[in-house]
Specification:
This protein is α/β, with parallel strands linked by helices. It has 17 helices and 21 strands. Strand 2, helix 2 and strand 3 form a beta-alpha-beta unit. The protein is elongated, with a radius of gyration of 24 Å. The chain starts with 7 loop residues before the first strand and ends with a strand.
């Protein structure tokens, strides 16, 4: 089963979509990867969802990616005597370490690491920015603030800190437990929330030990200041526009989306655009025109994947949301201007053999109008390097490892097949051409280009290019 678009679709599972029947419908409608949000899933429900996805995978005969999204640290106020207070602009309000219910003058902040990190001038946002405070005095046990945006502060509302780097891990005890359970269940991608620095990524990769790839969600201003370092360590990126738009002025988000997308592509890492892409389809069978334009922009920008959150997890029209996203992506990619925009974004190849071969493969396929690029790959890395070039010819990756095929479900333009590894050079060329024909990429006597590494089965050994005819 071949998709007629290059960008991939990630659908979040939830109450509206966790049945076997609905997951199969979402896959057939266009979902390539399913996301399980551990903010709302227990270990048992996560395992059940993984099992259902694998059943669907077996039924449809295509590798399906599974992403588990870790909750990350949730920073919250403590409680108030009267459950809530109305803060007025200009008044002083204190956040402190005193474990007593709050009032109009103060509240307990049960995060000593925050109090120790705050400095005068730092902004504190409460309830997704509905209330904004600015610190005027700070010690290790209390922060005196002035209310800049008035509003209601109530029990256990979330706290965001756009100016403050908190010297704690992006992983909580719950996240570590969720991570281990997910790895045991055999998932493919781990999404790490609230990444501030490359060390946060390194910690997760150390635990994962290659059992799953690590995707860093960019949703903190602190991550932007160390973006290249974070991309370098990560296996993929997500532009998490929801929290990014809370902690930064919302008008900065579109530019950051483009910057992160291009930086990730330059470094050969898949990039996902997420949050509120078809938000109105939670309750409506059709999206707004602005939402369609938003999805189209992400596709024009060359994102590897676009993601649905509540639309597919808890909305009234999960199948329609995936189908709509699929149609928009297909239409954009068939637009005459699409190819020129994608080509103009090509990055300079790195001085490695794999990059040089990927770039040459792109150019040879374009010059000779070859029908497909076929990459033999053990780990999936060769496929990712070719996808980085965004070739016009479709990309077929052949791998003996089902885990590699599932991981590639997130990457732009890749159609992954699981097959026995090549035995020799002739088998490499013959079987690649046969599979290109059987999968509908090339007709008889049409030419394809094949990329592989010798010795076969050795990760990172891409060193051979060959042109062959489909049988």
């Amino acid at each position: 089963m071949r998709r007629m678009r290059r960008v991939k679709i990630i659908a979040t599972l939830g109450p509206a979509s966790i049945s076997n029947n609905m997951i199969q419908k979402l896959f057939l409608a266009g979902a390539d990867v399913f996301r399980i949000n551990m903010s709302h899933a227990s270990h048992d429900s996560m395992r059940q969802q993984v099992s259902i996805i694998r059943e669907v995978e077996s039924k449809v005969g295509r590798p399906i990616g599974i992403m588990v999204d870790l909750q990350g640290p949730k920073l919250r106020l403590d409680v108030f005597t009267d459950n809530a207070v109305m803060l007025e602009k200009g008044q002083k309000f204190i956040l402190d370490a005193v474990k007593q219910p709050g009032n109009i003058e103060r509240v307990h902040l049960p995060h000593p690491e925050i109090l120790a990190s705050l400095e005068p001038g730092h902004v504190i946002l409460i309830d997704d920015g509905k209330v904004r405070l600015r610190v005027v005095e700070a010690t290790k046990t209390r922060a005196v603030t002035v209310v800049e945006v008035a509003g209601k502060a109530s029990n256990r509302k979330g706290v965001s800190l756009p100016d403050t780097t908190i010297p704690v891990s992006a992983m909580t005890d719950k996240d570590r437990s969720d991570l281990e359970a997910s790895l045991e269940a055999g998932i493919d991608w781990i999404a790490v929330s609230f990444v501030q620095r490359p060390e946060d990524v390194a910690e997760v990769k150390k635990i994962a030990r290659g059992r799953a790839l690590v995707l860093s969600k960019i949703e903190k201003p602190q991550a932007i200041t160390r973006l290249d370092e974070i991309i370098e360590l990560s296996d993929a990126l997500m532009v998490a526009r929801g929290d990014l738009g809370v902690e930064l002025p919302i008008e900065k988000v579109p530019g950051l989306q483009k910057r992160i997308t291009r930086s990730a592509r330059r470094m050969g890492k898949p990039v996902v655009i997420a949050t509120q892409m078809l938000e109105s389809m939670i309750t409506s069978p059709v999206p707004t025109r602005a939402e369609v334009s938003d999805v189209a922009t992400a596709v024009f920008d060359g994102a590897d994947a676009i993601m649905l959150s509540a639309e597919s997890a808890a909305g009234q029209y999960p199948e329609e949301a995936v189908s709509t996203m699929n149609r928009v992506a297909e239409e954009v990619e068939s637009d005459p201007i699409y190819r020129s925009i994608i080509n103009n974004q090509r990055a300079k190849a790195e001085a490695t053999g794999a990059d040089a071969i990927a770039m040459a493969t792109h150019d040879i396929a374009a010059t000779l109008d070859l029908k497909a690029i076929i990459a033999w790959t053990a780990s999936g890395a060769t496929g990712l390097r070719i996808a980085r070039e965004r070739p016009e010819a479709p990309v077929l990756t052949l791998t003996p490892n089902i885990s590699a095929a599932r991981r590639l479900a997130i990457a732009w333009g890749i159609h992954a097949l699981v097959t026995e590894d090549a035995h020799d050079v002739d088998d490499m060329a013959t079987r690649a051409a046969e599979l290109a024909a059987s999968e509908g990429f090339a007709k008889s006597a049409e030419r394809v280009i094949i990329v592989a590494g010798v010795p076969f089965g050795t990760p990172g050994a891409t060193n051979m290019v060959r042109i062959a005819y489909a049988p």
